[in-house]
Fold:
Amino acid sequence: MIFFLKISMKKTLNRLMCLNFLSISPEGKLYDCDFNQALGLSIDHPKDVFALRKLGLEVLEGGTIKIGDHCYGCTALFGTGCFGALT
Ligand code: SF4
Structure:
């Protein structure tokens, strides 16, 4: 059972929205995912899509993703996402 859980979480973690997408508010603020946008957890740098345009997407590489208890919905067992189950 533990082996099964490790496999499931590894597959889920590789497919998290926050690793591959940006969420942008109508005002141009940047978020790691839709869930973070709903909670108001914006990316600190760059501060908005206009700054990102000037700096380039490379500025996001290696950045810290804001996480919280809401992340268990994505990472526990099979995970969930905007499009349903991740795995
Ligand atoms: S809720 Fe957390 S784990 Fe899920 S995509 Fe957003 S930051 Fe990533």
Observations:
- The chain has a mean pLDDT of 83.
- Residues 2-13 form the longest helix (12 residues).
- Helices lie at 2-13, 17-20, 34-39, 49-55, 72-75.
